[in-house]
Amino acid sequence: MTSAATWTSFIKSIASYNGDISSLTAPPFILSPVSLTEYSQNWSEHVDLLVEPNFITENDASKLGASAGEPIELLRMLAVIRWFVSTLKSQYSSRSEELGSEKKPLNPFLGEVFVGKWEDASKEGKLGETILLSEQVSHHPPITAYAVENKKNNTILEGYNGVRASMATTALNVRQYGHAMLEFRNFNENYLITLPPLHIEGLLAFSPHVELEQKSYIQSSTGYYTVFEYSGKGYFSGKKNSFKARVYKNFEESKKKENALYTISGQWSEKSNIAKGASSPSSKNDLFFSARECEAQHLKVKPMEEQHPLESQKAWAQVADAIRKGDYDLIHNAKSELENAQRELRKTEEANNAKWNRRWFDEVDYSAKAATDDDIFVKLSKMANLSIKNVVSGIDADSSKNDEVETMSHWRFVPENFDNETEIKI
Known about the structure:
The protein is α+β, with helices and mostly antiparallel strands and 426 residues long. Helices cover 22% and strands 28% of the residues. The chain contains nine helices and 18 strands. It has helices at 3-15, 47-51, 72-92, 94-99, 312-315, 317-325, 328-351, 376-383, 415-419, and strands spanning 31-35, 104-106, 113-118, 130-139, 142-150, 155-167, 172-184, 189-194, 198-201, 209-212, 214-220, 225-231, 242-248, 262-267, 271-276, 286-290, 361-365, 409-413. Strands 3, 4, 5, 6, 7, 8, 9, 10, 11, 12, 13, 14, 15 and 16 form a 14-stranded antiparallel sheet that branches. A two-stranded parallel sheet has the order 1-2. Helix 6 (317-325) runs antiparallel to helix 7. The longest helix is centred in the last third of the chain and has 24 residues, at 328-351. The chain is globular. The mean pLDDT is 91.
């Protein structure tokens, strides 16, 4: 059967599938040679922007497109927004540009890890080394937890994400679960970041690509609150990868758009501009971020021969090689061998009444610990009126969707576990 015929058959099968289709086996030619655990690196391919809030002063307002005299906390929020916008191209469109279309990543096995580092690329050496830890903490449902740490500047990003997909008429709808939390310990400031919904277009044209939709949010512990709205190219108008972000003094102020302190808009894969107030900026306003002009800094990963068997690139080496060669029989055989070995391991654990111990992350049950405002996640969620239940990322606390879910467990990074790590090194 030709690739086109196989693709058509696959589309028909998922169109009639009732349930979450993110775990379905895709045709070999649509597979990426990269495991989903490696996607965590996309959060920090602009390390300079990630740690930039540490260096912001009152004199940097113009660099961010802000007016002179703005509070330093607001300037840091604008810097965090610029970093977040920089992550969107890496996370959602870089693969389409490199490979010609979106590919389905390899589905990680429980306990799979991916690690690496970004070396200091600054001339003055102010950035320091930044490390990435990514771990598959759940297989059913698939959940990847990650931590990005820059010890020199006391900055840490941590979070986790999972997805559930369903087929619409001409697109694949994807709902993301989880969130990210960014901490600047030098000035005791924290940010909660939700994950936007998305859909995959171009399925019928055999050229799938990601488009973000609806909203996502950033809540600062200083009160400042940002609402992102996403849209794509319509049949008659609009541009792909479009977004608008409005910054407010707090959540209550966001109930009226005219209360916005600043508005940023443009294309997250291209350029965006910033203007004071609630009106959308034009290209004549200050440039906020240019994805084309800001080159990504890629993660440095140790050679394959130095990697642990649980590390993604080593574990999937045969499968990845077969995908690159287009050897469909070898892809099937190599994938089956690895996945069958994992199934046997899970059966053995079940027979021995044992469970797999996570390396660097713990699952925290917020219902069991009687969540209070002492926990920064709970505090920020309440400030932004966001649910702490295991619902789709960014759901309001008073949404009826909370009635369908009882659990409120979230994955948290345990730094001392990595400090005591003896087997896997960066």
